[in-house]
Design brief:
By secondary structure, the chain is α/β, with parallel strands linked by helices. Helices cover 40% and strands 25% of the residues. The chain binds adenosine-5'-triphosphate and magnesium ion. Residues 54-55, 97, 173 line the site of magnesium ion.
Length: 253
């Protein structure tokens, strides 16, 4: 049964492919030739210690950072160097590390911003109903300021905002950071629910072991390079230092 599942996973179409990405801040390189691919319907996680380049990858895929070299293809289109709003319109949504909701705007306005550039009235209403189903709290607080929500609720809003563009790829950068254990459980349940609905997800999580356990595949980053890619259960045997990244030491993400 699991073999059948594996085969169908392998046969899925590649939705995003990045090859040999070199990305830096000023003259300092943060990514040294990173390649990765994500298939339709997959949940892929990126792990690695602080500063290994996880956020840099997501920001590059979202068009926020321009690679110095390398290529990114999304749904068959070359999106290398495209602006964030163009990439967003094509179907890539980034829920950034630190949430970055707009605290002075209402929940409704925050959600509306998520659909910016992709707004279609009938679809918007449908998506809004889905968000209310996934996140009942957002219906209750619809006309309240985003800044009045608790940290966990703001994270829900940030994810819902990402989903409002009806993305083909959802990227979640540390969605459970700073949340209480109950809230962390909720976030993981939500990710699994989104996956079961067919969403393609790229995930960076502080709780790398737990993220890996629900992921189809894992990329392990070290100093801006891919150290390992494959199934989480194969990582330990492939990489000697895997325990350093996955074993729950203090500096581990
Ligand atoms: N705005 C910036 N200017 C200069 N250097 C940066 C900037 N943002 C990140 N870096 C550097 O790029 C490297 C990769 O950072 P990045 O934020 O991608 O790591 P990360 O794996 O997401 O880390 P964390 O787990 O702490 O979120 C680090 O060396 C970091 O110091
Ligand atoms: Mg980061």
């Amino acid at each position: 049964m699991s073999e059948l599942k594996t085969t169908s996973q392998e046969e899925r179409e590649v939705i995003l492919s990045a090859s040999d990405l070199h990305v830096g801040y000023g003259s300092v390189l943060a990514l040294h030739g990173v390649s990765l691919e994500i298939k339709k319907g997959e949940l892929v996680s990126i792990c690695g210690i602080n500063g290994s380049g996880k956020t840099t990858i997501m920001r590059t895929l979202a068009g926020v950072l321009k690679p110095k070299s390398g290529k990114i293809t999304f749904k068959g289109t070359d999106i290398t160097g495209k602006k964030p709003e163009q990439v967003h319109k094509l179907g890539v949504a980034l829920v950034p590390q630190g949430r970055e909701i707009f605290p002075s705007l209402t929940v409704a306005e925050n959600l509306r911003i998520g659909a910016f550039g992709c707004y279609k009235p009938a679809q918007y209403q449908k998506d809004l109903e889905t968000m209310f189903e996934l996140f009942p709290i957002l219906k209750e607080r619809y006309n309240q300021g985003g800044g009045l929500l608790s940290g966990g609720e703001q994270q829900m809003l940030a994810i819902a905002r990402g989903l409002m563009s009806n993305p083909d790829l959802l990227m979640l950068d540390e969605p459970s950071l700073g949340l209480s254990p109950n809230r962390v459980d909720q976030i993981f349940e939500l990710i699994e629910e989104l996956k079961s609905r067919g969403m393609t997800i790229l995930l960076v999580e502080q709780n790398a072991e737990r993220a890996a356990s629900i992921s189809d595949r894992v990329y392990l980053l070290s100093n801006g390079r891919v150290e390992f890619s494959g199934k989480a259960e194969d990582m330990a045997s492939a990489i000697d230092v895997a325990s350093l990244y996955m074993g729950g030491k203090e500096e581990v993400k």
